[in-house]
Amino acid sequence: MGAGRFAPSPSGPLHIGNLRTAILAWLFARSTGREFLLRIEDLDRARAGAQEQQLHELEAVGLEFDGPLVVQNDRRAVYHAAVDNLRARHLVYECYCTRKDIAQAASAPHAAPGAYPGTCRNLSDAQRAEKSRSRPAAIRLRSEVSEFTIQDELSGEVTAPVDDFVLLRNDGTPAYNLAVVVDDGEYGIDQVVRGDDLLSSAPRQAYLAQLLGYEIPHYAHVPMALNAQGQRLAKRDGAVTLEDLSEKGIDPRFVRFGLLESLSLPGASLEAALAAFDPARLPREPWIVEPDEFVHQLMPRASHNG
Ligand code: GLU
Question: Is 9 near ligand 1, meaning CB less than 6 Å away?
């Protein structure tokens, strides 16, 4: 049996867009007979108390997970071991560039936009020794491709550039792209459902997964919740967390109802939604959220059902 997952970063409370993505990941996993795992991605954006709060929020909308909770901060040694594996195969190198160095080199005439220009890729031992005196090194992948293609359930074939991306930052912290690939691989996650802001990262992650000997997962990048200006939904947009909505008299069951309806699924329960779930019929457009309207739409229901 394979597994799907939800992998929030504990940077604050989940908002209704995050919860909608979590529900979608659950629907994809359960409708394909997979387990559903929860992983806390706390390597950089962790805020005290946010992990507990997010667990509580996921429970409040009725999502249940299998297996042990995976917390990335407990797994640093595993990510370092993956880098050692690549190092033994000459697939990594030390990089001493500052952001400014990269920006300058990347503006050179033939540089690929946004890609690491390869400044430190072929340093001699002497040059490395010299540079290491002024700055600790980040570790980059020595990529052997310039792009990679994945299949996405909603977007079809997606090709994106793969540069020499960072695996370990220069303070030793494993980078998101490394941790996500190692964890998905180690826990047998063969289905990745997440917001489509990560679609362009999927090819580099798939390439790394392949280098590390993991099966490339099945991907579904789902449209996200945006505000009326087309920006990613955020706290400043109004009542967008379960706590904000509770204060307005909307309890989590009704929030879930609204989220399922926004996916054109029956809102009565997760099971009813699961029975009706068909990825081919999911909305392909972002979910534009006007928090006041969302509250108004749910208010009559909340007050009738007490
Ligand atoms: N932790 C990432 C986020 O909250 C998601 C990573 C993933 O699903 O691969 O945006």
Answer: yes
Residue 223 in tokens:
């449209």
Contacts of 96 (CB under 8 A, 6+ apart): 120, 128, 131, 132, 134, 135, 137, 138
Contact 5, 185 (CB under 8 A): no
Domains along the chain with CATH numbers? 3-66+223-305 (3.40.50.620), 75-217 (3.40.50.620)
Instruction: Output the CA 143–ligand 1 centroid distance in Å.
Output: 23
CA 180 to ligand 1 centroid distance, Å: 8
Of ligand 1's listed atoms, the one at least distance from the Cα of 184 is: 9
Which atom number of ligand 1 is nearest to the Cα of residue 197? 10
The model carries a pTM of: 0.95
Q: Is the CB of 217 under 6 A from ligand 1?
A: no
pLDDT digits (tens, 9 = 90+) for 245-296: 999 999 999 999 999 999 999 999 999 999 999 999 999 999 999 999 999 9
